[in-house]
């Protein structure tokens, strides 16, 4: 390294040398050499990154999808999720010998944030279905995923994938109990309604109808502060929502979603949050068919159909942006 090398270059070269990447073979005839390290078996897992609830790359909500022929060690799921460092990493696994990603119709499915496993993730389920339908060319009309939230089904309808999700009721919540958390999220903004979903541990905060979409979009939120502001221990996700355009041609409602309790400060587009939002806004608007938009900086659109059997169809588009292998 000459004296003219810039600091960044010197640092990089120092790292290369320290790692042994630039070393020559310095073996001396007659001198005993260290025993060769025993090679370990290399494992490869296919991984695909999919942007969900959008048809445009670099928008919607990205999820990494791993295809597993066999179960992994429990801690390896979490290590991979941390390595991918997206809001969720999904693991699709074959359930029995002879299963095939292009021909079978039922698979196991788990979801991990960089911090922990979660019981339900809509956008990573949409991404998983997209991988099977579009990448693996699965020929079934309906796919079934066995998950911590029961069996979830996905089907193709034209250029959308429709998820069959549980519908979760949000009940009136006493403001005083969560006042500090709400203040940490929206400051002195006018709050019109507060609901809590015990099944999902999500708090729904509806802002005043006087606020338009742009107000929610431009709201500066420091979700890290939620951890100290939430005193009850029962909230694991915060939904902020406003009523949409009353003309009937635009979106029926808008939302943003935060979950620092699971290591996700803000989730770009959240299917599981819409399992709660769908129930709430269907009741408020008197509608079963709705169009929703989650207005994070990436943004994403969801088509919603509330069913009479206590479930909800959430439909969205997808864009496959990356294909490769995890090697370890």
TrEMBL record:
GO CC term, one of those recorded: cytoplasm
Superkingdom, natural source: Eukaryota
Active-site residues, Swiss-Prot/TrEMBL: 88
Keywords recorded for this protein, A-Z: Isomerase
UniProt entry tagged with the keyword Isomerase: yes
Residue ranges of coiled coil: none
Cross-referenced Pfam families: PhzC-PhzF (PF02567)
GO molecular function: isomerase activity
Keyword set includes Transferase: no
Entry's family note: Belongs to the PhzF family.
Protein name, entry field: Phenazine biosynthesis-like domain-containing protein
Organism: Chloebia gouldiae
């Amino acid at each position: 390294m000459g004296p003219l090398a810039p600091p960044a270059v010197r640092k990089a070269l120092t790292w290369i040398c320290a790692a042994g990447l630039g070393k020559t073979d310095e073996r001396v005839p007659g001198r005993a050499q260290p025993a060769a390290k025993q090679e370990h078996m290399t494992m490869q897992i296919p991984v695909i990154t999919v942007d969900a609830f959008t048809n445009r790359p670099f928008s919607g909500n990205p999820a990494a999808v791993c295809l597993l022929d066999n179960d992994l060690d429990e801690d390896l799921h979490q290590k991979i999720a941390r390595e991918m460092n997206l809001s969720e990493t999904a693991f699709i696994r074959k359930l029995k010998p002879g299963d095939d990603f292009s021909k079978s119709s039922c698979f196991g499915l788990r979801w991990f944030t960089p911090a922990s496993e979660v019981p339900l993730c809509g956008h990573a389920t949409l991404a998983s279905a997209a991988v099977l339908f579009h990448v693996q060319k699965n020929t079934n009309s309906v796919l079934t995923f066995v998950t911590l939230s029961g069996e979830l089904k996905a089907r193709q309808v034209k250029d959308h994938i429709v998820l069959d999700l549980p519908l979760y009721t949000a009940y009136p919540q006493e403001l005083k109990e969560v006042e500090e958390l709400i203040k940490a999220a929206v400051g002195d903004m006018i709050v019109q309604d507060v609901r809590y979903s015990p099944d999902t541990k999500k708090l729904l905060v509806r802002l005043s109808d006087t606020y338009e979409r742009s107000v929610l979009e431009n709201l500066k939120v420091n979700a890290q502060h939620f951890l100290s502001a939430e005193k009850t221990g029962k909230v694991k996700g915060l939904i902020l929502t406003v009523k949409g355009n009353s003309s009937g041609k635009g979106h029926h409602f808008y939302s943003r979603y935060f979950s620092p309790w699971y290591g996700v400060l803000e989730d770009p587009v959240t299917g599981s949050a819409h399992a709660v939002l769908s129930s709430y806004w269907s009741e408020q608007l008197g509608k079963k068919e709705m169009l929703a938009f989650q207005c994070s900086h990436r943004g994403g659109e969801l088509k919603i159909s509330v069913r009479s059997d206590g479930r909800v169809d959430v439909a969205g588009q997808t864009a496959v942006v990356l294909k490769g292998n995890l090697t370890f």
